[in-house]
């Protein structure tokens, strides 16, 4: 089954569903089942809202983390070098500061 179209509330084709579900409507999907030759319209709804706090980060921004970059990944290696990564031949890993790879 393939999803071919995803519509957000307010887009053409979602008016009736937006009227029915209001702010609880997240999106409308059109899925196609080649076996049964049917188009299925599905909706994603919010059923509960609760306060949430994100957990503390696993690594601080200056923690060195290992990256395995294969020989053929030349562009990725160049990006790692640009972010300050260093090669450790004993461990066969590139090491870079966590904050430089996640953009913090």
Keywords:
three-stranded antiparallel beta sheet; 2 domains; 34% strand; alpha+beta; 104 residues; 20% helix
What does this structure look like?
- With 104 residues, the protein is α+β, with helices and mostly antiparallel strands.
- It folds into two domains: 2-45; 64-102, no CATH class.
- The protein is 20% helix and 34% strand.
- The protein is built from three helices and six strands.
- The chain has a three-stranded antiparallel β-sheet, with helices on one face. Strands 4-6-5 form a three-stranded antiparallel β-sheet.
- The longest helix has 9 residues, at 74-82.
- It starts with a strand and ends with a helix.
- The mean pLDDT is 91.
Please summarize the sheet with the most strands: 3 strands, antiparallel
The percentage helix is 10-25%
Shape: elongated
Low-confidence stretches: none
How many beta-strand segments? Answer: 6
Average residue pLDDT: 91
Spatial order of strands in the largest sheet = 1-2-3
Order of helices and strands: EHEEEHEEH
Number of domains: 2
What is the radius of gyration computed over CA atoms, rounded to a whole number of angstroms? 23 Å
Number of helices: 3
Structural class: alpha+beta
Distance between the termini: 39 Å
Percentage of residues in strands: 25-35%
Topology:
Elements (H helix, E strand, L loop, with lengths): L1 E6 L7 H7 L3 E9 L4 E8 L18 E4 L6 H9 L3 E3 L4 E5 H5 L2
Antiparallel strand pairs: 1-2, 2-3, 4-6, 5-6
């Amino acid at each position: 089954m393939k999803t071919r179209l995803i519509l957000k509330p307010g887009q053409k084709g979602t008016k009736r569903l937006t009227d029915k579900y209001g702010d609880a409507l997240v999106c409308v999907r059109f899925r196609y089942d080649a076996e049964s030759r049917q188009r299925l319209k599905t909706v994603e709804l919010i059923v509960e809202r609760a306060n949430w706090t994100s957990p503390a980060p696993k690594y601080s921004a200056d923690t060195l983390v290992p990256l395995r970059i294969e020989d053929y990944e030349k562009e990725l290696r160049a990006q790692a070098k640009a972010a300050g990564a260093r090669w450790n031949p004993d461990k066969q890993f590139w090491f870079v500061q966590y904050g430089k790879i996640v953009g913090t």
